[in-house]
Amino acid sequence: MNVTSDPPIVYETRGRVVRIVMNRPERLNALTLPEMRDALAAALDRAGADTEVRAVILTGAGDRAFCTGWDMETLGDVDLAALEGLIRDNLALFFKILDLRQPVVAAINGYALGAGAALALACDLAVAAEHAKLGEPEVRHYALSPFLILPFLTHGKAAAEYYYTGDMLTAADMYRLGLVNRVVPGAELEAAAWALAERLARVPPYPLQMTKRSLRQAYELMGLGAAARQHGLADAMVIGANLPEQRALLDLLAKEGMRAFLEARDGPFGT
Question: Taking CA 152 as the corner, what is the angle to CA 147 and CA 157, rounded to the nearest 5 degrees?
Fold first, then answer.
C-alpha cells in the first residue's frame, strides 16, 4: 500500500482503490474551514484525475467518528454575503462526490453529524459500523441541514422526522431506511469497505462510470440540484437571522466551549 499524508487528510492507494481519510480524530474529524474542506476537495480531485483509480473510500480516522461536521469553534463572524459564499462552497464539496467519475464508498466508523452526515449520504454506497450514528442536529441551533439529499434516498416520512427533530439514526435505522448497504462490527469495517471498493474496481470502468453518470442525471431530473441549492439559500437566511436565542447559543459556544453549547442545544431533547 502506498500512503501519502497531507494532514489533516490522508490519501492512501491500494491497487486500483483510493482511501481518503479525514484525519482529525482528537476533534472527531470535524472539518476546519476552508483549510480541511479544501484539502478534502483536492484529494477527491486527485482521485478523479487518476485514470488508474476505479473506486474511492471516504472515512474518518479512529473508531469514534466519521466526521462531525464543520468545526464551529474555528468559525468567526461573517456577514450575510460571506455566509452565502461559504454555504455555496460547502455545497460544492458534496456535489463533488456526486459528480466524481468513480463510485465512492462511505465507511461510517462512528458519528456522522451535520456536514459529516451530508458527506456520507453523498457517497454512492456505504458501510456502517454497528456503533455508527447519523444525524443533522442543525435545526436545534438555528441552522438547516447543509445538503438536502435525504428525500431522494428514502421515504418522505423518514426524511421529515430526521430533518425536523435533529435526532440521530442508528446503524440499524440507516440500513432499514436504505441509507447504507452493509452494517458490520466495528472491527470489521475497514476490511468490509476495502472489499466492497475492490469489488467495484473489478467492474469494467467505462460502463461503471457511465452508469454513475446516468444515476446522477436521474437525481438531477428529480430535482436534487435545484432543491439543494434553494435549501442552501434558506440556510443562509436562517443563520443570518441572528435571532436572540440563536445568538445566546453562539455566545455560549464562544465563552464556555463546545461541551456547554451541546448541553444547552441537546439537553432539552435528551440526546
Answer: 95
pTM to 2 decimals? 0.95
| Residues spanned by the domain of 146 | 2-240
Q: What is the pLDDT of residues 69-93, one digit of tens each?
A: 999 877 666 777 888 899 999 999 9
In a domain, 217, yes or no: yes
The reply to whether 253 falls in a domain is: no
Which is it for the CA torsion 147, 152, 158, 160, positive or negative? positive
138 is catalytic: yes
CATH classification of the domain holding 206: 3.90.226.10
Beta strands 125-129; 182-184: pairing state: parallel
Q: Write down the catalytic residue from 26, 73, 130, 138.
A: 138
* Rg for the chain, CA atoms, rounded: 18
